[in-house]
Design a protein that fits this description.
The chain is α/β, with parallel strands linked by helices.
């Protein structure tokens, strides 16, 4: 249905893509992954026609319609919410306006009558009579209530606009869906509805997302954007990651015979398939996996940060006791009489009000005073805190990141500091970047390096996956899973929460 032939894109001397050939088939969802800056969103812009490639072509079958999730959430402020959704099918919306203009004419002629009849036939063929009810159902599924459907887009807040734009992309049963970060600003209920929608979708879905749980649930293929190429792999994100890591290990083991490697791969596929759900997408994916041979799987060339939090000493039995904590900020009561006792080794995820969770973590980190109540750490506890907002750590510091990290190091030797930065993939001239010009993801990796220097046995993380690519999120997940101490954390990443948390606390 959709094909990419010999696609290349150059920005000056920089080669972003070179000689890409891909074919996208109906009934499958393709997850596009890659490090920040690899060109994922740029690839989607080429597919949608928003950006011209330097060479090559994108072919969409004749009479097929592509729908793209719009990123400009303010472009429709002059339209109603319902009209904005229906604009997802441009021809249908155009017919509606043409009909309205014809029927509003005072001197309605015979020619107008013929034109109106033709428009009515095309309108019916495009399911125009159901357009408003279909659009309304999509909006309600994405938590936009009926009383907002006839409001102007300018009256909605940013999060609501994002959801309306998503409903617009999904409207009218397009043949190809191109979605860039569709789960951004969605609540869990809306994400789960979107997953079910895409799992049952019969067209082509091409999606960029940092949500591993979402990619695992909806994808039957992974498109890996790396080193100017885009390679297609069968399976969802977890299968791509685990199988590529397995292949890397097998290839490095020169003493293993190919037959033994094939057997190990087959065992891995059987284990992976056995854990799949019974959904249509998972069943379809299992059939694809069963056809894989050894040569189909290549080790990933992706670079992963090395994140490891190593406590200097093991914690004793007394960890943390919280008794009756209460906090009100700007007249809003965030929590009242909150109590919790932590056992040794527990890893606790917090859900609920983000403002309340941030305030609680600030109190436990010693950065904010409670209005009432108390908390007490055990005498063996040493803690490290990752704040949601790291602005204060970088603001006003006009030096490179080696000097930035040196502030927090007990050993100020260059090699020692560069060693931690190297683990976070800062090397060579990158370590000379001014800390004022770092991206959001760069700053988070610097904060991880800072925490790794602190041999704490108690970690607190407030939204650590914000601004991160999938590689860093995966490395963080592995690090937290291996950490032997206690962790308090909150995150939008459902996969991280399900993997790490022993207990979930609603605040």
């Amino acid at each position: 249905m959709l094909q990419v032939e010999d696609l290349s894109l150059f920005f000056g001397d920089r080669k972003l893509f070179d000689g890409i050939n891909l074919k996208f088939s109906p009934g499958h969802c393709y997850g596009v992954i890659g490090a920040n800056g690899a060109g994922k969103s740029t690839f989607l812009k080429i597919l949608s026609g928003e950006l011209e490639p330097s060479k090559g072509e994108v072919h969409l079958e004749k009479n097929r319609r592509m729908s793209v999730l719009k990123q400009d959430h303010y472009a429709y402020d002059a339209f109603t919410v319902l009209d904005t959704v229906i604009m997802g099918n441009p021809r249908l919306y155009e017919i509606m306006k043409e009909k309205d203009a014809l029927y509003a004419k005072e001197d309605f002629s015979d020619e107008d009558g013929v034109a109106a009849g033709e428009l009515e036939a095309e309108f019916a063929n495009l399911n125009g009579w159901e357009a408003e009810s279909d659009a309304s159902k999509l909006l309600q599924s994405l938590s936009i209530p009926e009383d907002k459907h006839y409001m102007m887009m300018s009256e909605l807040d940013g999060r609501q606009k994002v959801r309306v734009c998503l409903a617009q992309a999904l409207f009218g049963n397009p043949d190809v869906l191109v979605l860039d970060e569709p789960t951004n600003d969605l609540d869990l209920k809306s994400i789960q509805w979107l997953e079910e929608f895409l799992i049952d979708y019969e067209g082509v879905v091409i999606v960029v997302s940092h949500d591993r749980h979402f990619l695992n649930n909806v994808c039957s293929y992974i498109c890996d954007v790396d080193f100017a190429s885009i390679k297609l792999y069968t399976g969802n994100y977890d299968f791509w990651y685990q199988s590529s890591q397995l292949m890397l290990s097998l290839m490095q083991d020169q003493n293993r015979k190919k037959e033994e490697k094939i057997q190990e791969l087959q065992k891995f596929i059987q284990r992976f398939s056995a854990n799949a759900s019974k959904s249509r997408q998972a069943t379809s994916r299992k059939k694809l996996l069963d056809k894989i041979v050894l040569d189909d799987i290549q080790p990933s060339t992706r670079r992963y940060p090395f994140i490891q939090f190593r406590p200097e000493r093991e914690a004793g039995n007394d960890i943390l006791t919280i008794s009756g904590l209460t906090k009100t900020i700007d007249g809003v009561e965030l929590f009242k009489d909150f109590s919790l006792t932590l056992d040794k080794g527990e890893k606790v995820a917090f859900t609920g009000s983000e403002h309340a969770i941030t305030a609680l973590f600030q109190i436990l980190a010693g950065e904010l005073e409670p209005d009432a109540g108390e908390f007490k750490y055990g005498v063996t506890i040493t803690k490290a805190y990752f704040p949601k907002d790291n602005t204060a750590f970088f603001e006003g510091f006009n030096k490179n990141i080696v000097e930035w990290l040196r502030q927090y190091s007990t050993d100020d030797s260059e090699n020692y500091i560069r060693g931690f930065l190297g683990k976070m993939l800062f090397s060579g001239e990158e370590t000379l970047k001014n800390s004022n010009v770092l991206s959001g993801g760069d700053k988070v990796r610097c904060m991880f390096a800072k925490m790794m220097m602190t041999p704490a046995n108690f970690l607190i993380f407030d939204q650590p996956t914000n601004h991160l690519d999938l590689e860093t999120i995966t490395a963080l997940s592995n690090a937290l899973e291996a950490f032997p101490g206690n962790i308090l954390f909150t995150t939008h990443d459902r996969e991280l929460m399900e993997t790490i948390a022993d207990k979930v606390v609603q605040l």
